[in-house]
Design a protein that fits this description.
The protein is of the alpha/beta class. The protein has 13 helices and 15 strands. Helix 12 packs across helix 13.
């Protein structure tokens, strides 16, 4: 299969991991040779409830039996998306009430940027250095890494950068600013948490200047950090919340949520300010609904903090300099980039799935399914420690 994969499927890097996947269940991915790989990455934080959670599968199958796609987003009233967006609103603080469902994280970012410009009538967008918000043209424009952007220029104009956690930079937010967009916890940069009330200060400055605060919770959302949404840790409610990844426990999805007053502006002047054929797809909405119901009706979210403590107590080694992040969004910061790289590659040979982070080359990602057991955590950590001892 790998030969055809390399020949016919567009590649994103010269060194794909190339595991030949047979099936997946719980915390394990099985390859076509019958090996079980313990998954400490969860499809890069997407498989919130592990692989093929029975309630998610049941919801998807029930919906597929009824109907799949019937109309472009927003025209027909369909129960999976309607029940889902209502349940989401019931679990979000005011004024976050109305959700626009789309197909991916990056599309949700595009929608949020459009909404901020439309609502404020301003064009300036402020993003953080070392942020990652996706790879379509708008999201890419938010990045400050020139080597990733230069060949795709011209990108969106009127974008400026501030340093995450730097209070002095907040003066760059002015009455020309349409929005400030931040990851609640910076992912690709190395799982950096906001410090000293930073998000609250950003929100206050935005409110003072009439700018909107967009929080990108595509990675930390849906329980991964020990709260349903990570902003709940930091006493800051965004004007626009962007979600995706773990929302549907493994199906492609994204969404942005705002108050009725803000969101309403996308439906007039021009009407259909954002159009998407498959947004709110009933199968994906059914999967999202099942995922949210499991999260709300179990102890999984609270348990992520106990599991974080277990990881931190087990993963003590001279080559691990720091463990960053919150809950089950953890990054091991190794002594050198070479150790980090070697650990990911060697772990693969021992049937443990680890991964890199985009911008911090000393980091090794640990973002397992929230359903991972203590026994599985101990098994995986023992592999990591044995590998580090042998390096
Ligand atoms: C914080 C953040 N924002 C946006 C995205 C883009 O989401 P997607 O890959 O679904 O377009 C990602 C994906 O890794 C992300 O981690």
């Amino acid at each position: 299969m790998n030969k055809d994969f390399l020949q016919y499927q567009a590649q994103t890097s010269p060194y794909p991991l190339g595991m030949e996947v047979s099936h997946a269940s719980g915390s394990y991915i099985y390859d076509t040779d019958g090996n079980a790989h313990l998954d400490f990455v969860a499809g890069v934080s997407a498989c919130t409830l592990g692989h093929c959670h029975p309630q998610v599968i049941e919801a998807i199958k029930n919906q597929v039996d009824k109907y799949m796609h019937v109309m472009v987003y927003g025209e027909y009233s369909q129960s999976p998306a309607t029940i889902y967006t209502k349940l989401l609103a019931n679990n979000l603080p005011a004024p976050l009430e109305v959700t626009y469902l789309v197909n991916s994280g990056t599309e949700a970012i595009e929608g949020a940027l459009k909404l901020a410009r439309r609502y404020t009538g301003r064009s300036e967008i402020i993003a953080a250095k070392s942020a990652y918000h996706g790879n379509t043209m708008g999201s890419l424009s938010l990045m400050d890494f020139e080597e990733r952007k230069s060949v795709f220029r011209p990108l969106l104009p009127d974008i400026y950068h501030i340093e995450f956690n730097n209070d002095k930079d907040l003066k760059k937010i002015t009455n020309k600013t349409a929005c400030v967009i931040l990851e609640t916890i910076q992912g690709g940069a190395g799982f950096i948490l906001p410090k000293n009330g930073y998000l609250k200060k950003v929100k206050e400055r935005c409110t003072e200047m009439g700018a909107l605060l967009i929080l990108d919770e595509i990675q930390p959302g849906f329980g991964r950090t020990g709260k349903l949404f990570a902003f709940e840790h930091f006493d800051c409610i965004p004007d626009i919340l962007v979600i995706g990844k773990g929302m549907a426990s493994g199906l492609p999805v994204g969404a942005f949520t705002a108050s009725k007053e803000i969101m309403h502006t996308l439906s007039e002047k021009p009407k259909m300010g954002h159009i998407t054929t498959f947004g709110g797809n009933p199968v994906i909405a059914a999967s999202s609904l099942a995922t949210l119901n499991v999260l709300l009706n179990s102890n999984l979210i609270a348990e992520t903090l106990r599991k974080e403590a277990l990881f931190k107590s087990l993963l003590k080694h001279p080559k691990i300099k720091e463990i960053r992040g919150r809950g089950l969004m953890l990054a091991l910061i190794m002594d050198t980039p070479e150790t980090a790289n070697e650990l990911v590659l060697q772990a693969k040979k021992k049937n443990l799935i680890l991964f890199w982070l985009l911008f911090e080359n000393r980091a090794v990602r640990i973002s397992p399914p929230l359903t991972i057991s203590e026994k599985e955590i101990k098994e995986g950590c023992a592999i990591i420690l044995a590998l580090l001892n042998s390096m």
